[in-house]
Design a protein that fits this description.
Length: 212
Amino acid sequence: MLTENTLGYGGRPCYLTNPQSILFFVAIPISVVMVVNLVMYISVIVKIMRLPEMGESKSRERNNLKIFVKLSTITGLTWIFGIVYELTDVELFGFLFTLFNASQGILIMFSFVINKRVASLICKKSYSASTQKSTRSATEMTEASEHMKSTRSATMMTEASEHMKSTRSASEMAEALEHMQRTSSATEMTEDFEHMQSSSSATYITSASQHI
């Protein structure tokens, strides 16, 4: 049965207690990873330094220094302090290892996220969003104005049509009244003419009778 001593793990600290286990399972794998990262880091630095100059030497050196510092935050070189602390048992290296390794995420954030380029992109995005909103509001206002104009025109056309209908009805009523008046006058004139004819005939008959 495996015991605590054969595993090399346990005890008061929740960590490996056997030095050989620390060497083979912690120190050597981390060292290999750091060496590979260091080689790639140096190769990137060499390639950047060999690039042709695009501006002044001072500005280029300053820019290259910023690039190198930013790249160093993702190489895992802070684990050097941890390995040195395990080998020497000096508390200073343990403090530096804890400080830099714990703040690595913050360093990456300030190196690659919080910078002028990201801030300019955020400002452009917010400006474009506000411009789109204002353009959309102006378009909606224009459409609402055109809708109001069309509604007003339709209302005016309806009112004009109703006014024309009412005017036409009034004209028709006036014409009908005049027609009735003319018909009534013609009837009265016919009756008067017939009355005059009958009166003339009676007078003529009376005068003829007297003559006889």
